[in-house]
Amino acid sequence: MIQMTIVISDVGIKNQAATTIAHIYVHDNPVIKSLHHAVNVTFTEAELFAIRYGINQATQLANINCIVVIIDLLHAAKRIFDSSVHPYQIHSAIISRELREFLIRD
């Protein structure tokens, strides 16, 4: 049986302060809800952080073999896998490492 977790992330910026939220569900049950605030970051950086945090938390859950990430910004998701964009390489490297460890585990 497939054990799936769903990561839903969203970002909002108001008065130059970013708020990121990540919801993580397993079998329609909320498992983790996280809210972070940051200043002096771009919208894309905040979105990548929310995705990175959600994936990090999802890969730590036991018996999960499928992760679905739902975001509202395709532009940020494309940045994850674009290694030529220097400011976002740290997010890309960490997400890649966490996903690699997750995939090797099962």
Question: Mind explaining what this structure looks like?
Answer:
The protein is an alpha+beta fold and 106 residues long. The chain has one domain (4-105): Nucleotidyltransferase, domain 5 (2-Layer Sandwich). It is built from three helices and four strands; from the N terminus they run βββαβαα. The chain has helices at residues 43-60, 74-80, 89-105, and strands at 4-14, 17-26, 29-39, 66-70. The radius of gyration is 14 Å and the shape is globular. The two termini are 13 Å apart.
Features:
40% helix, Nucleotidyltransferase, domain 5, alpha+beta, single chain, four-stranded mixed beta sheet, 106 residues, 35% strand, 3 helices
Provide a concise account of the structure shown.
The protein has 106 residues and is an alpha+beta fold. The protein has helices spanning 43-60, 74-80, 89-105, and strands at 4-14, 17-26, 29-39, 66-70.
Q: Please count the helical segments.
A: 3
Number of strands: 4
Here the CATH topology equals Nucleotidyltransferase, domain 5
The total tally of domains equals 1
Structural class: alpha+beta
Mean pLDDT, all residues: 80
In N-to-C order, the SSE pattern is: EEEHEHH
Oligomer: single chain
Q: Specify the overall morphology.
A: globular
| End-to-end gap | 13 Å
Unreliable residue runs = none
Strand content: 25-35%
Largest sheet: 4 strands, mixed
- Name of the CATH superfamily: Ribonuclease H-like superfamily/Ribonuclease H
The whole-angstrom Rg is 14 Å
Instruction: Report the CATH C-level class.
Output: Alpha Beta
The percentage helix is: 25-40%
Q: Which strand order do you get reading across the main beta sheet? A: 3-2-1-4
CATH architecture term: 2-Layer Sandwich
